[in-house]
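Late entry, evening session. Most of the bench is empty. Finally got around to the prediction I had been postponing all week. Sequence below, unchanged from the version circulated by S.P.
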Amino acid sequence: MDNQTTEKLLRNGENERIEFVRFTNSLEAVGKAVCALLNNLGGSGSVLVGVTDSGNPTGSLSEAQADQVRGFLHESIAPHALFTVSVDDVQGGSVLVVDVPSGQDVPYVFDGTVYVRSGSRTVRAEAEAIRTMVDKHATETDRWERRFSPGLEIGDLSSPLIRQTVENATNKRGFVFQNPKDTVSVLSNLGLMRYGQLTNGADVLFGERVAIRHPQTRLRAVRYETNKGGSYLDDQLFEGPAFSLLESAVAFVRRSTSIVADFPSESLTRDVRPQYPFNAIREGLVNALVHRDYASYSGSVSLYVYPNRIEIWNSGSLPEGIRARDLHRESHRSVLVNPDISHIFYLHELMERVGRGTYMIVKECKRLGAKSPSWSQEGGGVQLTIYASTGTDISAKTLNERQIAALSELEEDKSIRSSEYAKRFGRGVTERQVRRDLSQLDKLGFLKREGSGPSTVYVRTAKQLESGHVRT
């Protein structure tokens, strides 16, 4: 459930990326809206079902209704696409949310018709709009995942993994296969086999010896002795299908990190917590595997474990128009770099909400009391840094009135210099105390330090003050 984000969508109303559908049995209206959002070349969006035009829930919905909508969309929209269907509890009831990324295989068709968004409405696409989409698709180079994998044969793929995919897709995601017992038909239905030839995507997902044909698919994992790197305690190179890489990487993190135990005051019970939020690490690894640039033969996925942080790096770049700081937001534009690979991860229940995975990472880190994670463009790739837990939220006990006032007034992404902080919030305190205030807010993840020397600024992050903070 992600009710906070959904309630915000309800309050903001319909627009070019959001549509409300009043009745859950209006499957045709849902299909048209999802089709239109897939054809929206400007970005992703959501369809909220069980909502009045003014944004009020009409009642309570069930997972069974979500399954019905999910199955209907899988059968009714062509070509196949990734979208997620969830039930979110909100004030006044619950709503069904279909999160839709910007489609990569336009034009998409629902019931024989192409639909697009016109402002806050879904309409039939005019001939010129369809021609534009067709021309754009025709002039784009085939994605690496869609190119044929030379020499790859059915026998090179993992049959158990394919069978597991069919089982999960059918029983848990409502995906309909034409012939679920025929491997060729299954792979064709999933877009992993075209004109009788297997694609690179099929090799990445199911190839038992994929690294022989594509060495860049390997994942390197290193555990360093100190926070500065240098000497390492463990160095592994994993290869195999992407699912195996994920499993091996998570296992590496678990054996390379510790469980922290505290004895809270006035208690004989031990408080045990992991050093890192493993759900966030798994999500970060999934993102690296599905969004990386597989066409870069010098690229890879790397996992670095330091005593105080974990870095996950993948070759590629952030999609055009998306900045690193956007990834901290509750909902941001979603562009799938490898839609076919992403779709199979979704069918395996390793991806849940389109466009909300990075925010889940932020929330998991905050829940554990860790500094807010960071994303950056590093060395031809995208790097996610997840910091070790500092324990319970110590800021609730240590923030002073100056710090609380600054956090309350500073808007997200706005910056402040130490001299400005002293003038606005620190009258009467020393320059050393000002530096200490700002350094602590940076350590706790409320601010992010940028620059050095006289040009140093502190940027307000998305992390918010909890109710009940104590002023000391």
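Two things to note before I forget:
Confidence is low (pLDDT under 50) at residues 392-397, 467-472.
Residues 290 and 341 are 6 Å apart (CA to CA).
Will write this up properly tomorrow.
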